[in-house]
Please model this.
Amino acid sequence: MRRKDREITEITEILQIIGKAKILHLGLFDGEFPYVVPLHYGYEYRAGELVFYMHGAKQGHKLDLIRQNPHVCIELECDVELISGGNIPCQYGAAFASVIGRGRAELLRDEAAKIHGLQLLMASQTGRDFAIDGKMAAAVEVISVRVTDFTAKSRPRA
Model:
């Protein structure tokens, strides 16, 4: 990381960023060009590993890409706010907090794992606990991304 003064290393602070953000950008390999898709997500941190859960239709381009190459990148940000530079264009910037990580995506098959992921997703997005049953889980694909390599950065508002 170039700006070590903005690096965040405390896992509690990193988890606060992840908990505050609402959209995860999932970066996939798509031949010659990257493919990035914004998704709602749920997450958990266990044994030094971040695990993100996303869901979607049973068919689609992102699923095809995951099947071809499960290596992915995730990015989340929150607290984005313009910092004015007044009349000097090069003095403009932004306050923000972000997390970027690399990991491996998996399309979950186990019903209990899918239900768990969907429950975390709903809790993360709504702040509420929902009962998810097997029928609900069977109606969607649930993507799990295990991230062991990640960095976080923040530029707070002065």
